[in-house]
Specification:
- By secondary structure, the chain is mostly helical.
- It has a domain at 7-89 and 129-141: Arc Repressor Mutant, subunit A (Orthogonal Bundle), CATH 1.10.10.
- It is 56% helix and 5% strand.
- It has 6 helices and 2 strands.
- It has helices spanning 7-20, 28-35, 39-51, 76-83, 101-127, 130-141; strands at 55-58, 64-67.
- Strands 1-2 form a two-stranded antiparallel sheet.
- Helix 1 packs across helix 6 (130-141).
- The chain is elongated, with a radius of gyration of 19 Å.
- The N and C termini lie far apart (40 Å).
- This is Rrf2 family transcriptional regulator.
- GO terms for molecular function: DNA-binding transcription factor activity.
- It holds the Pfam family Rrf2.
Length: 147
């Protein structure tokens, strides 16, 4: 099963940091420090977010990454869709035996269940914006909420 990778969590973390940042862009190193991760790996994720028009970058002194849209206009699903490839759920890597009653019939049934689960995931992630998430982060840390 392909499943979700950590890319979604990294992307959402980076977007939340960029939304939290006031007064200028963040470098990939600053974002990587918060993630306790390698800046090269973080830059790959940021590149996907840029390609999806969620963030943009400026080069040179004082450069870095910034949100391309308001955090209220970026959902967790936007981040997920920008960095994840393929389906969350997939069939067996090898087709089951057609000689088996279960093997003959399970594929189509699983496909329907998996499509339903993926739609539910997309709907849930689409309900929460980066602004919503950041507000909850700040509330849980005792800092003032954003408006």
């Amino acid at each position: 099963m392909a499943g979700l990778s950590s890319r979604s969590a990294v992307a959402i973390h980076a977007l939340a940091m960029l939304a939290h940042r006031r007064g200028g862009p963040l470098t990939s190193t600053e974002i990587a420090d918060s993630l306790d991760s390698n800046p090269v790996l973080v830059r790959r994720i940021l590149g996907h977010l840029r390609d999806a028009h969620l963030i943009w970058s400026t080069e040179g002194r004082g450069g870095g990454w910034s949100l391309a849209r308001s955090p209220r206009d970026i959902t967790l699903y936007d981040a997920y869709a920008a960095v994840e490839e393929g389906q969350v759920f997939s069939r067996h890597t090898h087709p089951p035996s057609r000689a088996c009653e279960v093997g003959r019939n399970i594929g189509d049934l699983l496909d329907a269940e998996f499509r339903s689960a993926e739609r539910a995931l997309e709907e849930q992630l689409g309900r929460t914006t980066i602004a919503d998430l950041l507000q909850r982060i700040l509330a849980s840390d005792g800092e003032p909420r954003i408006h």
